[in-house]
Structures are given as structure tokens and as C-alpha cells.
Design brief:
The protein is α+β, with helices and mostly antiparallel strands. It has helices spanning 13-23, 35-41, 46-49, 85-96, 112-119, 154-167, 175-182, 233-247, 262-270, 289-294; strands at residues 3-8, 53-58, 61-69, 72-77, 103-105, 123-124, 129-135, 148-149, 193-196, 202-206, 215-217, 221-223, 252-258, 274-279, 282-284. Helices cover 32% and strands 24% of the residues. A seven-stranded mixed beta sheet has the order 1-2-3-4-5-15-6, with helices on both faces. Strands 11-13-7-14 form a four-stranded mixed beta sheet, with helices on one face. Bound molecules: coenzyme A (COA). Residues 167-168, 220-223, 229-235, 257, 261-264, 266-267, 270 line the site of coenzyme A. Coenzyme A (COA) is lined by residues 167-168, 220-223, 229-235, 257, 261-264, 266-267, 270.
Length: 296
């Protein structure tokens, strides 16, 4: 049965998030495109967002999604279909058609999708990412401190955005982008954290994340660079978030970060998260782009 591919827009984001939530397993941590990635993607203006999300369906049922950005694809294949050759082929064809000279994609280990791409000449991205995970229980509900809480007003949002911009080189995050994210699907204001020092300056921040009652993945912890390195600001904001997630009834939290980001791995580890897996995306080397596109 044929797989249909549909280009989606902002109006589809709530349905995508609801479907991805339904695909999360209680007994496993999430890998691949996650509800939090879609929520973060909502920060983009319509002209940048529209066309970047695609859905793949069979017989009217969604079987895969993909977030297609220039040179980077984040696919997610429905649970139980990792070995489905037809679904893998449809997603792989879309990824192969990316026009950029070099393209990178997530692909679950052992999946038909990863196997297909490897047959087409794709190879390991040399930079591994580390997945860290922590199950949450009632003992985590008390984590946090009184100076770390969700931004309470417009000034707080400005500070939250400033932390993000300062911590991530090349960040284009703005208050407008934050507002688009905050009105997007799955945004939970209780899970957006901002730490202040003893004179009230913003020192660290964390993304909101979706996933009450289930596993949560949190992409970004950020410390404001002028604030001292290793002073515990990153850990404070992370612990406040773990506490909020515990109180919200989340069962676990995972994060992916480049393995070479020693500061990130250290801050997550120091809050009780444990490295449980290294993952490597696949890349299509420039020299293979023409022959791979012809492969049948
Ligand atoms: C990652 C980041 C938030 C850490 O913030 P921080 O305030 O310096 O971290 P903390 O002071 O809370 O330190 C927590 C632990 O990490 C350790 N640590 C911090 N930076 C480190 C580094 N560069 N190398 C090794 N360990 C480091 C600290 O010593 C401390 O360890 P301890 O628990 O044994 O005492 C900060 O470096 C940052 O904003 N980086 C840029 C954004 C980023 O990459 N975020 C992560 C994205 S997934």
C-alpha cells in the first residue's frame, strides 16, 4: 500500500504533538523527533516554519513525521514500524531528495530506515551525541530553590531570552520567538525556568518542555556567560526543572547533547542524570549526493 507524503504547517503542530505524545512509551525514553522538538520549532515565524514538517501516512494513518531543515532531518517513525521497508523507503526517499550538498539525519540503530541509507552510501557523522536519562520519583519533587522559577512577567521573559542568546553562540532567539513558542502546542509555563543570583541578575535558564505524566526530553540548559563558570548556576536551574517535572508527575527525563560538550554532560551528570547511550547521526557525504539520488 502506498505511503503518502504531506507537507504540514503551523496549524498542524497540535496534531503532530498529540500523535507524538501517543507514540511515547511509558517504559522507554524518547529517541528521534520528540514533542519538545516540535514545541521548540514553533518559535519560528510562519515563512520559516511552513513546509519544514512532513507527515507520512498509509491508508490515512500517520506512520512517520519528519522535521526537514536545510541540511538536517529529524525523522520519527511510528512505534512498531522500525522494520517496515515501505515506510523506511518513503522517508529515505524524502531525505535523499534534500538538495543541500551535505545532509545529516537521525536514524534509529538497526532500523530499516538506517539500513536503507547505509546502502545508499550514507555514513556515520564522526561527532557522537550522548543521551542522559534520569527516572523521576517522589524524591525529586523537592528539588529547586526559591530564586529559580518560571519568568513571572515581560521583564522575566526578556531575561530568559537574554540568557539563551548569551549561552548559545549564534542564537537568533528573540522575545517574539519566545512568544510564538509559548503560544504553540505543548508549552507548559511551569516548566520554563529562570535562575537569578543574589542581586537579581539572570544567571541561567531552561527550555519549557512538554510531557506531563510521561517521559520528558529537555534540550537546553544555559548559563549566562558573564556569570562564573562552574558556580553551580547550570545545576540550580536544572534541579529546579527536575523538581517541577517531578511535581507534574513526569516519570523520567532524558537529554541529548554533543558528547564533546563536557560542560553539558557534567551539569546533567551532577544532577543525577546518567549517560546511557551514545548516538551517531548519518551524513550524506558531498561526493555521494548525485549517485545516491539515482539509487533505486
Ligand atoms: C552547560 C552549562 C549550562 C553549565 O553551566 P555551569 O553554571 O557552568 O555549570 P555548574 O556550575 O552548575 O556545574 C555543574 C557541574 O559541571 C561541572 N562543569 C561545568 N563546566 C564544566 C566543563 N567545562 N568541564 C567539565 N566540568 C564542568 C562543574 O564543575 C560541576 O561539577 P560538580 O557537580 O562535580 O561540581 C554552561 O556551560 C552553558 O550554558 N553552556 C552553553 C550552553 C550549552 O551547551 N548547554 C547545554 C546544551 S544541551
Amino acid at each position: 500500500m502506498a505511503i503518502d507524503e504531506t507537507i504540514l504547517s503551523r496549524a498542524d503542530l497540535p496534531d503532530i504533538v498529540a500523535t507524538l505524545m501517543a507514540w511515547e512509551g511509558e517504559a522507554s525514553y524518547p529517541l528521534g523527533l520528540h514533542v519538545g522538538d516540535v514545541g521548540w520549532h514553533a518559535r519560528l515565524p510562519d515563512d520559516e516554519l511552513d513546509g519544514t514538517m512532513r507527515a507520512f501516512s498509509r491508508n490515512g494513518v500517520w506512520v512517520a513525521f519528519g522535521l526537514f531543515e536545510p541540511g538536517l532531518v529529524r525523522p520519527r517513525i511510528a512505534p512498531g514500524l522500525a522494520y517496515d521497508a515501505e515506510v523506511a523507503r518513503a522517508v529515505a526517499d524524502a531525505v535523499q531528495a534534500m538538495p543541500q550538498p551535505q545532509v545529516c539525519t537521525d536514524a534509529d540503530p538497526g532500523s530499516a530506515f538506517r539500513t536503507w541509507l547505509s546502502a545508499a552510501g550514507w555514513t556515520l557523522d564522526p561527532d557522537p551525541w550522548t543521551c542522559l536519562y534520569k527516572p523521576l520519583d517522589s524524591g525529586d519533587r523537592d528539588l529547586g530553590d526559591s530564586a529559580t522559577k518560571p519568568p513571572a512577567d515581560a521583564d522575566g521573559v526578556c531575561d530568559r531570552v537574554a540568557v539563551q542568546r548569551a549561552a548559545f553562540t549564534g542564537s537568533t532567539f528573540t522575545v517574539e520567538a519566545w512568544q510564538r513558542m509559548a503560544t504553540g502546542p505543548g508549552f507548559d509555563p511551569d516548566l520554563e525556568m529562570l535562575s537569578r543570583d543574589d542581586v537579581g541578575r539572570p544567571v541561567a535558564g531552561r527550555d519549557r518542555l512538554v510531557g506531563r505524566g510521561r517521559k520528558v526530553r529537555n534540550p537546553r540548559t544555559a548559563r549566562h556567560p558573564p556569570r562564573p563558570l562552574g558556580a553551580g548556576h547550570g545545576r540550580r536551574v536544572l534541579q529546579a526543572l527536575l523538581g517541577a517535572l517531578g511535581r507534574a508527575g513526569c516519570s523520567g527525563v532524558s537529554v541529548h547533547t554533543p558528547a564533546r560538550n563536557a560542560a553539558a554532560v557534567a551539569v546533567y551528570t551532577s544532577s543525577g542524570m546518567r549517560a546511557i547511550e551514545n548516538t551517531q547521526t548519518l551524513i550524506r557525504p558531498k561526493r555521494l549526493s548525485v549517485s545516491a539520488a539515482r539509487l533505486e
